[in-house]
């Protein structure tokens, strides 16, 4: 059979190989005194809180399961609008909010609605692997721009200016980022947006981890910069609803009917049950639970990052959000007699029974020197992971 060049251009997720190997190893170790600890997981270890679960059950029980409008339940769009005002102090009218099947569908819609064949999109190296594939699925080209610790592993206005070419259509950013958990400093983001605007380009920013911000200095939505920002968001991370497949995007007013048309055809709508359930996310009781969990993620970061550094796994930029640590593994790999983050990840799996993510999928600049640890695991598991690494790297 022949497949499309579009599909062929999409690289496999190499980290899935590591994850599969970790799963297989976990089965071998299941009944031993050293079961596998998973620090490679990119989703919260919590599920939706009780009110949200009850709302989903109610929707199923009452048969409230028909398609919704392509743009989403009006009530849910209103609740998200109110959340922006309360939590981030930014006015985002509900009519610019579009409900999607996760941030993934929002990213896909944003790319399909704005990118023409041959257009180039600048994004930081390292960044979330799927982003370059959303761009290439829309027949654009992702241009990965190497970033440094001094730039918080994010694009800077200078670099956007320097890399902007004839075919550049815009930038695709994520703040806080996966894999680094670092955000773009607000003044730098404003400068980036000025450069993009001056070029007549687009600023697309993935704010999926913004709800899990741990630092006041960075926890602001880019939407405050103007109505021309395209912001991607989701119920997956802060709201702990990964498998429910629900997200949203905020787009400029003129883009709403365009995305509506594409979304109607490609998806009809996001899951109706998930949308009804998500209304309960904004009840004070649910928000209180989410805030408790956010504090837990922060406590884990505050324990785990210094512990990693003490083990010889420096984290050059302290994450200000999400639940990741982007650690330089060169010294630790040397100690174990291996070279590169891929082999280091396998060494930790084999010798300490820890699953982590090597840098490879996130880009090509220095990614062989870095691994991503996820702290979406209990404090007890993180402590045990540190104890095992201490024994191995002592
Ligand atoms: C930066 C980033 N964007 C988007 C996604 C996709 O999220 P969703 O579950 O909302 O599709 C992820 C998932 O890990 C992510 O890390």
What do these coordinates show?
- Helix 3 (50-62) packs across helix 10 and helix 5 packs across helix 6 (129-137).
- The protein has two domains: 5-47 and 286-393, Aspartate Aminotransferase, domain 1 (Alpha-Beta Complex), CATH 3.90.1150; 50-282, Type I PLP-dependent aspartate aminotransferase-like (Major domain) (Aspartate Aminotransferase, domain 2, 3-Layer(aba) Sandwich), CATH 3.40.640.
- The protein has helices at 5-8, 14-29, 50-62, 74-88, 102-114, 129-137, 157-163, 186-198, 256-267, 272-279, 284-310, 330-335, 340-352, 379-393; strands spanning 37-38, 97-100, 120-125, 141-146, 168-174, 202-206, 230-234, 247-250, 324-328, 354-355, 357-358, 370-374.
- It is an alpha/beta fold.
